[in-house]
């Protein structure tokens, strides 16, 4: 303390008790996280805080700008604690305490250096590891034990769903061995098996089946894995599913469509339709509105599929609930090539019927 700074005025003598007479201690570091640092000071309670607030010591916390090497005030007031938020993980910060007396005199503490911690492993890290097929990182996160294996991402997909959809077979095996539930569903009711079937990842499909995934599961539209496999159009997967005992004419609860109906409506794939028909799919099955696969194929102008269905015994004379047949439908929608096919078929029918 420099005595000459405070001479003989009675007020100044009184201030001798509260002006910082020696350099203040640096702030004491409290709780430190990856984004915050807690600082304390004046632990000896030198400031007794008697009388009005303007007679108290005022404290300021200043933080160093590492680029400019100067200090900026981040807190000022009468508290003896402050939490600095919004910091970067694994970063060094420098702070000092400024103590100001009521008369405006002040002293700085020595600087304290504090590093924030590493960002804790979150479910975002976990899902990022799965998305980029990072096997090592996934294993490290799972071994850490802080993340639940079935925590969903922001789209409601578990890690297994993502790995199954992307065909990351090794990740699927790691997740299953770490206790993931193979039968969990996302927001639309799809499970990992449906996603793998649609994407055509046969190795994943086989592995999930071995570990308890069911062909009987349905999504919110009542569709099964075979409906989704039909949409995906991957014949090796569909062939294996059928051989594994998957029901071929499974009906969804929305439109009353079988997988063959889905093909007729969506892709028009002859290859997929042939596989399903060879496995026993009914070519004349009717949906809730009385439509057959042939009608749906006509409406969607799947010319080659119309040809296939006719060859496989589809009934071209059937009517829907409004009494409309496939030829009328084709004419309404001006499906010229399909009209030709159906008319050719019609010409041949009398000759065929006379043989019986």
TrEMBL record:
UniProt ANK repeat ranges: 155-187, 188-220, 221-253, 255-288, 289-321
Instruction: Name the SMART domains on file.
Output: ANK, FN3
Residues forming coiled coils: none
Q: Where in the cell is it found?
A: Cytoplasm, Cytoskeleton, Cilium basal body; Cytoplasm, Cytosol; Nucleus
The Fibronectin type-III domain covers: 23-120
Q: Which InterPro entries match?
A: Ankyrin_rpt, Ankyrin_rpt-contain_sf, FN3_dom, FN3_sf, Ig-like_fold
Protein name, as recorded: Fibronectin type 3 and ankyrin repeat domains 1 protein
Q: Which UniProt keywords apply?
A: ANK repeat, Cell projection, Cytoplasm, Cytoskeleton, Nucleus, Repeat, Ubl conjugation
Q: Which GO terms describe its biological process?
A: regulation of apoptotic process
Q: Name one Pfam family in it.
A: Ank_2
Q: Which organism is it from?
A: Cricetulus griseus (Chinese hamster)
Underlying gene? Fank1
Superkingdom classification of source: Eukaryota
